[in-house]
Design goal:
Chains A, B: Its EC number is 1.6.5.9. Chains A, B: It catalyses: a quinone + NADH + H(+) = a quinol + NAD(+). Chains A, B: Belongs to the NADH dehydrogenase family. Chains A, B: InterPro entries: FAD/NAD-bd_sf, FAD/NAD-binding_dom, NDH-2. The structure is a homodimer. Chain A is α/β, with parallel strands linked by helices. The first copy, chain A, has 2 domains: 176 residues, FAD/NAD(P)-binding domain; 202 residues, FAD/NAD(P)-binding domain (3-Layer(bba) Sandwich). Chain A contains 12 helices and 27 strands. In chain A, the strands form 9 sheets. In chain A, strands 5-2-1-9-21-20 form a 6-stranded mixed beta sheet. In chain A, strand 25 and strand 26 form a beta hairpin. At the A-B interface, strand 5, helix 5 and helix 12 of A face strand 5, helix 5 and helix 12 of B.
Chain lengths: 418, 418
């Protein structure tokens, strides 16, 4: 009898937990990702706002896999899966499996707005964060030598779409970068004319959290001089302006889209049913109805629990991935795993350097205690002891000295208009 | 009488020292660079060998300029200088000056070998180091799934051209990355088949240092399994092979060129005399013969001292830049500055994690004492307290744990052949 092979597609939060559960088992485990690192996405906005280096939030998969003797890694892109042949198709050739765990994650959802997709920046991949940071700093540099005051102000206007945690956190970090750091870097600019605008389609921020916390966040951001537009939708954009659904036009050279995610493109190639956002409905044990050897975890999975679809967030992916890995092991022992049950331990979002909101176990926290909890949790979940030290070092620098040390434009733009 | 304006082109070692000397004076100082940071070039090879993040060796110019109230910065590209009109031409328009200090540095010299220039990697800019690191790691990843043993070995073969400090240091760092770090990351590869080849056109390494140290370096590198080819020149290359002058062919997917530098392209646009490497001859006080208000410092300057042309190295640029800044101040006080005199405080080069060679004040050091001196000096000259801490942290990690923590491929390649 041959050694069973488990293939894990995607080394995000779901895939990493699955790999950990399967490590040291007697199974042959192959991890596949198109990047050679696990990315800690929740901190991407910090790279984009010059608070962290990109390398602090990424951890080499091979470094992880060193202590897992039965685990291998291939850097390659998955193009599809043949469920009948039990083969994963990749750009380096086909890979057979006995069990498959798919955790390829999600992609930004532009809701069919093609001009927006063309001009907007988003925050899903490591490169996105560096590109956005470069854009922000380049805009200010360009503003220094821009003679036309209207164009100057448009260069210093940043529109963020989406009032969920990503948009809120980035808006807070960006307004602080401008107010405390760039104001000193650019004494020759009237920094007070810079604008950070947060656009949200519904009537509240952080809609997935209790209303009290959403209201607190709204007031806090406005007190920090973020312009928050509620019940507003972006419908069009080009490289110098953003257009809202009511005809309002905001002259701005930078549009950041964090208004929605959908399943990764791989999902559409799979011969299965699809639900909202292209996600794949799974059984209570996270397997596909017709292919019980295939698990789908994380953002790609569509599963209802207590009348609600589980959200596309990191803790869900982590618990699903850990479950899938353990379930495979249980089945190999001849056992039948219990159905998956997600334990919601709460959620949180920061609003600048020492404020946050958090909700857990029915408790709502705001202000400094919430922020401290956020900091400890994120450092804990970061992978890599050295990464934790570097991140803490950067945050100490920022907290005590109000310095963002990574104000570097790392790729020169061509001299065409921004 | 108007305030005199000093324009400094280039914020390398020369420009930074000039700016420091001019800060706090009554003059209006404008710094120009096409990047918004000062780059610590001597440590580029460490970013390329996954030992440091790129942000650790770059320091924001605006952060430096904060404590210099009379100093401003423009991020722009200089296209030429009109000496008669006393104007610097830039992509953002012309800039007038009363004094000009040009320190635009150097570029890689491929000696007219166009195919080599097309396929070789070099180490002059921050992006170069990240691109080279990605290439090295991508080659190993590709080797994992490569079925042909000959192609596999060519993927794991790295040819470095140039036996000066840059080539020596990179060869040592690369062989250690492969031997101590990648060997553990890629247990499935026969890492012992990887090759690091150092090609030098003359019959010795580190030709600018005493022969004893060059011999020591040669023996050390060979004991670390670097193949050193002396009296050898690369004449041709494509993406899978390197061709030497005697017809030898080395199958290799990565060629790194550190065999020479020449003056930055700006030099060729200037209406002055030119000497070897396109460098600009200067008077004993570093000014242009026909334009005494213009100084040229650093790699671009051609100046003889005691029968030898001053080399294109960082200490020369630092001393020239400091001199030029002080000279401008002296002239504004009505004084005549002494001629420039370079004080050679020695040079050094590392060979891996705890060995180096150094020569100073007639003394030759090798081994561990030289390495310690190298470490302290480089940390001292790095700009930015936080940068020093991060770099020391990375080096501690490397020295004690033999870990190179930055083994990330940060930009995905298209799936075409490497």
């Amino acid at each position: 009898m041959h050694t069973k092979r488990v293939v894990v597609i995607g080394m995000g939060f779901g895939g990493v937990r699955a790999a950990r559960a399967l490590a040291g088992s007697g199974l042959d485990v192959l991890l596949i990702d198109r990047n050679n690192y696990h990315l800690f996405q929740p901190l991407l906005y910090q790279v984009a706002s010059a608070g962290l280096e990109q390398e602090s939030i990424a951890y080499s998969i091979r470094a992880m896999a060193r202590q897992w003797p039965n685990v291998r890694f291939h850097l390659t892109e998955v193009t599809g899966v043949d469920f009948d042949a039990r083969e994963v198709q990749t750009t380096s050739g086909p890979v057979g499996y006995d069990y498959l765990i798919i955790g390829a994650g999600s992609a930004t959802n532009f809701f069919g707005l093609t001009t927006v997709q063309q001009y907007a920046y988003d925050l899903k991949e490591l490169e996105d964060a560096e590109v956005l940071r470069n854009q922000i700093l380049n805009c200010f540099e360009q503003a220094v030598t821009e003679p036309d005051p209207a164009r100057k102000r448009a260069l210093m206007t940043f529109v963020i779409v989406g009032g969920g945690p990503t948009g809120v956190e980035f808006a807070g970090a960006l307004i602080e970068l401008v107010t405390y750091v760039l104001a000193k870097d650019y004494p020759e600019l009237g920094i007070h004319t810079a604008r950070v605008v947060l656009v949200e389609a519904t009537d509240r921020l952080l809609a997935a959290m209790p209303q009290e916390l959403g209201m607190y966040t709204l007031q806090k951001l406005r007190s920090m001089c973020v312009e928050v537009l509620l019940n507003a939708q972006v419908v069009d954009a080009d490289n110098t302006r953003v257009v809202l659904h009511d005809g309002a036009v905001i002259p701005a050279h930078t549009l950041i889209w964090s208004a929605g995610v959908k399943a990764a493109p791989l999902a559409a190639t799979l011969q299965t049913a699809h639900a909202g956002g292209g996600r794949i409905p799974v059984q209570p044990d996270l397997t596909l109805a017709d292919h019980p050897e295939v698990y789908v975890v994380g953002d790609m999975a569509w599963l209802e629990q207590e009348g609600k679809i589980l959200p596309m967030v990191a803790p869900v992916a982590m618990q699903m991935g850990a479950y899938a890995g353990a379930a495979v092991l249980a089945r190999e022992q001849g056992e039948t795993p219990e159905p998956f049950c997600y334990h919601d331990k709460g959620s949180m979002a920061t609003i600048g350097r020492n404020t946050a909101v958090a909700t857990a176990f029915g408790l709502n926290l705001k202000g400094y205690p919430a922020w401290l909890a956020w900091l400890l949790l994120h450092v804990y979940y970061l992978i890599g002891f050295r990464n934790r030290i570097v991140v803490l070092l950067n945050w100490v620098w920022y907290y005590w000295f109000h310095e963002r040390q990574v104000r570097l434009i790392t790729r020169r733009k061509a001299s065409d208009s921004l």
